[in-house]
């Protein structure tokens, strides 16, 4: 899939012989040129034509040997915040050090004029760290964050941060940081994975009190360069409208577009790794996919004993995201980390993304400090050097977001030996029972009489030997139970949804299962 076959709902302007994301703005003949997205596209184009270089000098002492606690103790002084224009956005930078040693240039744009933010020691409170002399002006920054009163008109809350490689996180109302988004994934889930990074940012000064702000970013890597236009709307469900132009440096690369990265250690469907008193530990508990055919797929994520990659092939996906559906404090029992308030991120393409796949990568992890879940869109035909590759999408941060999967949705996924639960297959110890709770949509109407509902089940291998459906009044919904028999060591993909009155009443639950080898 290349720019020549892509239809975008975007303005047109020629840049390096390709279609640009933004329309060119007419300027009076005597007006000074205004910095904009076309300038970032040109820089990305020129950067792609030059040899890739990534040998940044380490930050000066003592910042070159900081541990996490020492680096975290360095705080930007609140009275030095930029864009402080009367109750709207404020900008603060992150200091270099610890894992964040690569210098990042941060610019502001005012009245169309871009100017870099100069580093100064006076911008920071160094806490317990002893700094005997002012650091040089080329010390630079590791990234930046924006603050906005999203929860309280009188309190500036952090709503977005860019820190480390091409990672960024953003929040809406009543949310706590959890999963991350990235600018681009390269060969994710393979031994050849590399991590593109943002070299430079430009932040436009918004009108006073406005809840929208525009950010431009220049991405670089050995595989591709990129120009990004990111417009943040801070709200109850904050959104990022992203337009990107990529310039691949080499052929045959597996790019992951709009990548999301999260953590899953354990949950009700996966208790392989237990952790003290907390029954569940995850930033996201499932992948939601909205297919071109209009079907909603729910795939619970897990912490597998080996790297597992799942692909959801589609002609033109309508959206995908990593969601945190379990909002009960009782599931996590963590007073400090508030996993029940971690946001869900959902990607909605703008225009036609063409053929490709939503790819889910699950990595094994032994603790909650590692992000082990990655979801992204991979084009069927990799972008090639010599052609600008354009795409756009909206990314939403929300809590429940009922508009996603508007029918009944999966609440819980459990599995257990079927013989332990009184199955007719009790003499077959290999039979496995899966229990899926659905709630929402019209399901409450059928709680009094589930017999009117059909359980639609399929499996790619093995056999479904028993299917039952019963009311679950505790969620005002229904519980479907299926028993599956599979040869030892084989893997199957299970699918299940509820149907009534000739229509689907729920999203489709899909789950991979590998039968124990018996060794």
Strand content: 35-45%
Distance between the termini: 45 Å
Q: Please state the CA-atom Rg, rounded to the nearest Å.
A: 25 Å
Query: Can you tell me the number of structural domains?
Result: 2
* Residue share in helix: under 10%
CATH class of the largest domain reads: Mainly Beta
Judging from the principal axes of the Cα atoms, what is the shape?
globular
User: Count the helices. How many?
Assistant: 3
Instruction: Please tally the β strands and state the result.
Output: 35
Structural commentary:
This protein is mainly beta. The chain has 2 domains: 63-398, Distorted Sandwich (Beta-galactosidase, Chain A, domain 5); 409-514, Immunoglobulin-like (Sandwich), CATH 2.60.40. The protein is 4% helix and 42% strand. The chain has helices at residues 37-49, 68-72, 329-332; strands at residues 14-15, 18-19, 75-76, 90-95, 105-110, 113-116, 124-125, 141-152, 155-163, 167-170, 180-182, 185-186, 197-204, 212-220, 224-233, 238-248, 255-262, 264-266, 281-282, 286-290, 296-300, 308-314, 319-323, 344-350, 356-362, 373-379, 389-398, 409-417, 432-439, 454-459, 463-472, 477-485, 491-500, 503-504, 508-514. The protein has a 15-stranded mixed beta sheet that branches. Strands 4, 8, 9, 10, 11, 12, 17, 22, 25 and 26 form a 10-stranded antiparallel beta sheet that branches. A 4-stranded antiparallel beta sheet has the order 28-29-32-31, with no helix packed on it. The protein is globular and about 75 Å long. The two termini are 45 Å apart. Mean pLDDT is 90; it is low at 1-26.
């Amino acid at each position: 899939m290349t720019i020549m076959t892509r239809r975008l709902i975007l303005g047109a302007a020629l840049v390096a012989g390709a279609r640009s994301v933004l329309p060119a703005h007419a300027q009076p003949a005597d007006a000074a040129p205004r910095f904009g997205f076309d300038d970032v596209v040109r820089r990305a184009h020129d950067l792609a034509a030059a040899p890739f270089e990534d040998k940044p000098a380490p930050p000066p002492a003592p910042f070159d040997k900081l541990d996490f606690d020492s680096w975290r103790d360095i705080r930007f002084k609140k009275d030095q915040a930029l864009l402080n224009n009367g109750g709207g956005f404020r900008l603060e930078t992150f200091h270099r050090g610890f894992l964040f040693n690569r210098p990042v240039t941060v610019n502001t744009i005012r009245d169309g004029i871009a100017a870099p933010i100069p580093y100064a020691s006076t911008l920071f409170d160094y806490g317990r760290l002893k700094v005997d002399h002012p650091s040089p002006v080329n010390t630079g920054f590791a990234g930046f964050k924006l603050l906005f009163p999203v929860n309280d008109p009188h309190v500036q809350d952090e709503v977005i941060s860019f820190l480390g490689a091409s990672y960024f996180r953003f929040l809406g109302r009543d949310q706590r940081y959890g999963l991350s988004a990235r600018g681009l994934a390269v060969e994710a889930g393979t031994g050849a994975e590399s991590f593109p990074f943002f070299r430079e940012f430009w932040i436009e000064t918004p009108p006073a009190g406005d809840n929208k702000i525009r950010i431009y970013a220049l991405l670089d890597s050995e595989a591709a360069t990129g120009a990004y236009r990111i417009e943040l709307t801070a709200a109850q469900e904050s959104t990022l409208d992203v337009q990107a132009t990529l310039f691949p440096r080499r052929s045959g690369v597996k790019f992951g577009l709009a990548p999301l990265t999260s953590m899953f250690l354990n949950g009700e469907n996966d208790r392989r790794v237990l952790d003290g008193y907390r029954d569940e530990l995850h930033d996201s508990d499932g992948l939601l996919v909205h297919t071109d055919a209009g079907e909603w797929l729910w795939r619970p994520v897990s912490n597998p004993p080996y790297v597992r990659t799942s692909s959801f092939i589609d002609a033109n996906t309508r959206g995908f995201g990593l969601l945190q559906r379990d909002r009960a404090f009782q599931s996590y029992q963590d007073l400090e980390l508030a996993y029940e308030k971690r946001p869900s991120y959902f990607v909605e393409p703008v225009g036609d993304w063409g053929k490709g796949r939503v790819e889910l990568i699950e990595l094994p992890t032994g603790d909650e400090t590692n992000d082990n879940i990655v979801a992204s869109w991979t084009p069927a035909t990799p972008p090639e050097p010599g052609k600008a590759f354009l795409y756009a999408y909206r990314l939403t941060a929300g809590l429940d977001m009922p508009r996603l999967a508007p029918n009944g949705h999966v609440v819980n996924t459990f599995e257990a030996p079927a013989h332990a639960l009184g199955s007719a297959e009790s003499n077959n110890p290999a039979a496995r029972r899966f229990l899926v709770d659905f709630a929402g949509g019209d399901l409450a109407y059928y709680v009094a009489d589930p017999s009117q509902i059909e359980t639609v089940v399929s499996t790619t291998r093995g056999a479904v030997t028993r299917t039952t459906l019963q009311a679950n009044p505790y969620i005002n919904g229904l519980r479907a139970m299926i028993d599956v028999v599979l040869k030892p060591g084989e893997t199957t993909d299970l699918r299940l949804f509820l149907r009534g009155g000739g229509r689907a009443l729920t999203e489709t639950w899909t789950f991979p299962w590998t039968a124990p080898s018996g060794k």
